[in-house]
Amino acid sequence: MATIQLTKIIAPSVWGWLGDRSGQRVRLVRFGAITGSLFFAGVFLEPGFYGLLLVMLAFTFFWNAILPLYEVITLRTLGKRKDKYGKVRLWGSVGFIGAVALVGGILEWVPIQKLPWLLLPVFVGIAVSAFLVPSDRGERKPAAPKGSLKAIVTHPAVVSFFLMNFLLQVSHGAYYTFFSIHLAQHGYGKLSIGLLWSLGVLAEIGLFLVMHRLSQNFSVRQIAIGALTLTMIRWMLIAELTDVVAVLVFAQLLHAASYGALHAISVQYIQGFFGQHHHGQGQALYSGLTFGAGGAAGAWLSGFLVDGISTAAAFWGGAVAMMVAIVITWRGLRPPPKDDNA
């Protein structure tokens, strides 16, 4: 399972560079979806531990290329209407809830060994749907575009942006790794735990529906600081008041801030700073450095806190990470330049 995080750090940068150089992002998405599905089919060969490790490395290398490229395609298609991004992105959350409900229901009737057979049609469906997206015009990147990638990545505001998102994912390490265990330790049943997970995703969907209004009325910095503060409060509530159902429900509703708001402004922030010529690599760095490296570091560090102290301590660690992120964002995050190529 760790290979998913490993390739998430490396693969998006490779595919983002290819997308920026060739301009053929839709074709790369199609290739990644088809090839990733074919490699995933290797699980049916029952290859043993090392064989399965190779299958996962190959599958996730192509699979982790798709989402960053699709983010670029979506924002390029929206153009001046990029504030509508949330209304497109919410369908990913709807799909997540649908998959959890459907697959979870089916697994009540069939053994878990059948899970790969349930996943394969989903991967094939994604590959097929990729062919419904119109192809790119294939505009190649000029040999020396204005503004080098190094100059953009080392810009103080961009450094602050990546540090903010890295710490955000570090803080989510306890949530994604130990939230269910933490709830079970406090006497919550499987149904209650599942409903609380779903509530967080529903809050995320609600946020995506109104995100365009927030973007029009507040600056990126204001939204970021507000969302980080609410995320810090969320981890403290989960750590200390887990037994109070109403408080836990409120904490899960704050997923709208800790994921929804920050992800929505981040993809637009990258478009503004990295521009037309480096947009794919910008999205790739965002995916790799935050969801990849940040997520892996958060899971690893929270494991030490759970082992040494308790699951509550891991959530307090997330709150501390958010305190640091708030300071960095307050001091360093600045709005991106106007994107003439949007």
TrEMBL record:
Name of the molecule in the record: Major facilitator superfamily transporter
PANTHER family hit by this protein: 3-PHENYLPROPIONIC ACID TRANSPORTER-RELATED (PTHR23522:SF10), BLL5896 PROTEIN (PTHR23522)
Keywords noted in UniProt: Cell inner membrane, Cell membrane, Membrane, Transmembrane, Transmembrane helix, Transport
Species this chain originates from: Marinobacter lipolyticus SM19
Compartments it resides in: Cell inner membrane
Keyword Ribosomal protein: no
GO molecular function, one term: lactose binding
Membrane-traversing stretches: 28-45, 51-70, 90-110, 116-135, 147-168, 188-211, 218-238, 244-265, 285-306, 312-333
Listed GO CC annotations: plasma membrane
Keyword Membrane: yes
Membrane topology: Multi-pass membrane protein
Pfam family, one: MFS_1_like
Domain Major facilitator superfamily associated: 1-315
